Amino acid sequence: MSASTPAEAHPAGDAAPDGPPPVHWRPLLVIGGALGVLLIALSPWYGYHRDELYFRVAGRHLAWGYPDQPALVPLLARVLTGVFGDSLVALRTPSALAAGAGVVIAGLTARELGGDRRAQLMTAGAFAAGPFLVASGHLLSTATFDLLLSTAIVWLAVRWVRTRDHRLFLVIGVLAAVAGNIKYLAAPLLAALVVGLLVTGPRDFVRRPALWAGAAVAALGTAPGLVWQARHGWPQLEMADQIAAEGDFGGRLGFVPFQIVLSGTVLAVLWIHGLVRLLRSPDLRPYRFLAYAYLLLNVVFLITAGKPYYLAGLWAALWAAGAVEIERRGAPRGMAWAVSVPAYAIVGAMTVLTTLPVYPVGRLKDTPQPAVNADAAETVGWPRLTAEIARVHRSLPPDERARATILTSNYGEAGAIDRYGPALGLPRPHSGHNGYWYFGRPADTGGPTIVVGPDSAAPLTRFWTQVTVAGRVDNGVGLDNEEQGKPVFVCRGQREPWARLWPKLRRLS
Predict the structure, then answer these.
(1) CA–CA distance from 315 to each of 148, 349, 357, 432 (Å)?
(2) What is the CA radius of gyration of the chain?
(3) The pTM is what?
(4) Rounded alpha-carbon distances, angstroms, from residue 448 to 317, 367, 396, 403
(5) Residue 111 contacts residue 21 (beta carbons within 8 Å)
(6) pLDDT per residue over 413-443, tens digit each?
(7) What contacts 67, CB < 8 A, 6 or more positions away?
(8) Which residues contact 405 (CB under 8 A, 6 or more apart)?
(9) Stretch (H or E) spanning 416
(10) Contact 426, 496 (CB under 8 A)
C-alpha cells in the first residue's frame, strides 16, 4: 500500500503499515508563527472593535449564556483584562495565537490526506493568506476561536478515517464542547460530517462506544448554555432571524461568491479544485465525506440565510485536498499560476492591505479597506465619542448632572463609554441592545437621560416629553462608520419609570 492510500481496509486501531508522509514541522511553524507575530505586532493599532468593548463588559456580568452568544469569550475577556488590564495587545494575543495554530492544523490536514511537503505548505499558506482568516485573527471574536476549533474537528475526523483510532471521537467531543461555548456552529458541522460519512462510508463508526462517549461529552459541555437559552425564551433563535434579515454579504445571492472572496479569490481556485477532486479522485475516495459535508452545509445555510464564513472550518480540508492532488498529478491546465508562489504572495499582500491596520488612521478613509472590511472602520473613534458624551454631560446644570443617566443604541457605544467614561466623570452607561439589556436598567433618579444612537428625535418622543439635540459624534478623521455624525440628545420628562420602559427598549441585532 502506498503512503497516499488511506488505511480504510485495516481493522479498528490499525493504520497503513508505511503510514502517511512526515509532518514538515519547521516550515509549518514558520508560516504559523509569522502570521501570529504579524497579528500581535499590529494588535495595538487603531482601537477596540465594538464586539471587544462588549466582551469586556459582558465578562463582568458572567452568565451561562447571552442572547447572542455562549459564555466562553466574555469569560476569556474577563481573565485577560483582570490579569493584564485594558491592553489591546493582551486582549488580542489569544486570537493571534489561534490564527497561527490554525495554519499548522491546516498543514496537518494535508498530511492526513497523504500530502507531503509541497501539499502541506500549499495548504498552510492558503490558510495564512485568507482574508477572513487573517481579519478574524486580528480581533478578539467568537469567529476566531470557532474557526480554529472547527478546523481541528475536521482534521481529527480525517485522521480517524485514516487510522481508525476511536479515541479521536473523545477528543472531538471535547473540542465540540468548547466550541459550543464559543459559537453555535459546531453542531451543524458535526451533523454534516456524520451525514457525509453515512453517505460515503465508512459507516461502522456509529457502532463505536467512543463515538457516543464523545457525543455525551459534547452534550454535557454545551448543556449549561442551552439551559440558559431555554430559560430565557431561546433568544438565539430570534438573533438568527435578525441576522438573516440583515442580508449581510449580499444575502443568499452572495453566499457562494463571498466564500470565494473571503478565502482569497485566487487561492479559492485551490479549494474549488479540492472539492471537485474529492468527488472524483479514487485516491481521495475515503475522504469524500468532506465534499458531501460541505455541500450539505451550503444548502442548510442558504436556506437559513447564514453567513458565508460559517463554512470556513471546512476550507482547510478542501485546500488540502486540492494541494494533495496537485502534488501528485500537477496542476490542471491553466491553474498553475493560481497556486504559484507569486500568487500566494499577491493574495497575502492584498489581505494585509485590506484587513489589517497598516495605514495611518487619518488616511484610512482614503483607502479601500473600510469598504472591503467594515470591521476596520468600527475600531476608530470610540474615545472621541465618549469625549462628546462627557462634554454634553458637563454642560448640564449641576443638579441635573448629578442625576443624569446615559442610554445608547448599541453595545459598542455603551462599551466605549464604560471603557473611557470613568476617567471623564461619566456615570455607567446602559443599552437595550443584545446582552447589554440583561446587564440592568438605569435607576429612577428623576434626572435627564443622555441618549446617543437614534438618527432623529422621533423615536425618543415616545418615552420623553422634551428631546433636545445637544451634540454630535465626530471621529475626527472623517471616517464613515456606524457612529459618525450621530446626534447626542438630552431627554427630559420621562413618561414612565424605567421598570416599565426597559422592556420596550430591548433589541436584538
Answers:
(1) 11, 20, 25, 36
(2) 25
(3) 0.92
(4) 56, 41, 9, 7
(5) yes
(6) 999 999 999 999 999 999 999 999 999 999 9
(7) 232, 235, 236, 238, 239, 434, 435, 437, 438, 508
(8) 427, 430, 442, 443, 445, 447, 448, 449, 450
(9) helix 411-420
(10) no
CB–CB of 118/285 below 8 Å? Answer: no
Sign of the torsion formed by the C-alpha atoms of 66, 67, 72 and 74: negative
| Cα atoms in the Cβ-side hemisphere of radius 13 Å centred on 356 | 25
Q: Could you read off the pLDDT of 318-360 as tens digits, one per residue?
A: 999 999 999 999 989 888 888 899 999 999 999 999 999 999 9
Query: Considering only CA atoms, which of 48, 136, 119 is closest in space to residue 415?
Result: 48
Secondary structure (3-state) at 431: strand
CA distances from 171 to 111, 177, 204, 216, 263 (A): 19, 10, 18, 12, 27
Contacts of 280 (CB under 8 A, 6+ apart): none
Residues 6+ apart with CB under 8 A from 445: 403, 404, 405
Distance CA 196, CA 489 (A): 55
